[in-house]
Write a structure and sequence with these properties.
There is one protein chain. With about 140 residues, the protein is mainly alpha-helical. The protein has one domain.
Amino acid sequence: MSTNPHFTPQSRAISQPQSRQAHRVRGLILDYALGISILGLIPIPRLFTLKLIVAFGLVLKMIWDIGKQWHWRKGQDFLAIAGVFFGILGALAMTLTAWLTFVGLGVFLPYLKGLAIAAAFFTLSWAIGQTVNQFFASGNE
C-alpha cells in the first residue's frame, strides 16, 4: 500500500472546510439565478427596462455576496483576472444563445417564447456567479 506524500491529515482538514465553502457558494449562485429568472417570468411587457435594471442590481448583489463568502480572498494573478473578463464575455454569449434558442423554439411552440427572458436571466446570472466564484476560489490565503 503506497501513501501519497502530498496528502496528509492536515491537508484533508483544510480541504473539507473549503469544500463546504464551495458548496455554500454554489447554492448561493443557484438561489440568485432562480430568483433572477423568476423576475424574467413577470408577464408585463412594458416593464422590460425595469426588469433589466433589477436583474443587474441582483447580479451585483450576488457578486458582493460571493466575495463576502470567500472573505474577499486576494492573491489572484493576471490569468485569474483575465479569466473573469473572458468568463463574463462567455456568459453574455451564452445568454444570447439561450435567448435565441427559446425565441426560435417559440416559433413552433408559442408558449416557449415567453420563457426566453427567464432563460436568458438564469444563464447570465449563473454563468457570472460561477466565474466570480472561480476567481475568488483561486486566491491564495
